[in-house]
Every structure is written in C-alpha cells, then in structure tokens.
Amino acid sequence: MGAAAAPVPDGADGVDSFSALLTLACPMAGGVTVVIAVVFALITPPRRPATVLLALAGAGLAAVWIVLTHQGGVRADVTGTSGSILDDVIWLVVAAALSATSLVLGAWHRRRHSPIRALS
Q: How confident is the prediction for the chain on average, in pLDDT?
C-alpha cells in the first residue's frame, strides 16, 4: 500500500483565515461607514442638502445590498447550491463610496465655515 496521507491543515479548503476575516470585515466596514454618514448628516448643524442626500442614497443602496444578499441566500437554500455575501457587493461598495463622500463634504463644509478659522 502507499504512504499514509499527510494530515490536512486547517483552512486547506482554499480559504485561509485572513481571507475569511477580510471577507467579513469589509462589508461590516462599509455598513459602519453608511451608518456614521447618515448620523452625521442628520444631527450635525447645518444640514447641507448634498451631504444628507448622499448619506441617504448610501443607506438606500446598502438596503438594496441587504435585500439582494438575503434573496441570494434563500435562492441557494431552495436550489441546494451555495451563495456568497460578495455576489452583489457592488451595491455596498457604491453605498460606502456615497457615504464617504457625504462625510468628506460635511467635514469640508464645517472646516471651511469654522469660527476658529475666521479668527486666524
């Protein structure tokens, strides 16, 4: 008979733990960015229409991503196939980009109109 098979290390299925962590951390970071942008756009005076619109658009696209990901999971359960949270991740990427733009615009506006800057 042949030699004994070598033990299979953890993560030998093609996914190492760093990749798995990155796969979970990126959508979470995108979601946190969306939430922070909405909160800052709605509670920090003065509310600029552009920052509020961008933040709410980001929240809407994040909701679309959640719905599409859920539908993909349900479809995978029904058909007995597998799915991934990254299948429709472009929606979350665009949501995070809009939200980050909202945060940058808000910070730029506050810095530009800061009373501290006017004194110097």
A: 83
